[in-house]
Design brief:
Helices cover 79% and strands 0% of the residues. The protein has 81 residues and is mainly alpha-helical. The longest helix is centred in the middle third of the chain and has 50 residues, at 6-55. The termini are far apart.
Length: 81
Amino acid sequence: MKLPTPETMKKRFWELKDQRDKLRAKADPIRAERDELSVKHAKEIAKANAKVAVAEKGLYDIEQEMAMLVRAIGGRMGEPE
């Protein structure tokens, strides 16, 4: 098998760059549209996360205390009385 020369590698590089540029020209507007949707959804997700945080206020402390109790008695919780 013959190894490519520096000249053939350079030629191939520029061929690939041309192909890449053509593909990016098609994809860039679609990416921009997608990015706008991502921003919109990110704002909606942030609002929903804020609502969840309010609804779960105190949950972290409860779960931490429960974990401490489980560790203190070796994980043998049994059933509720």
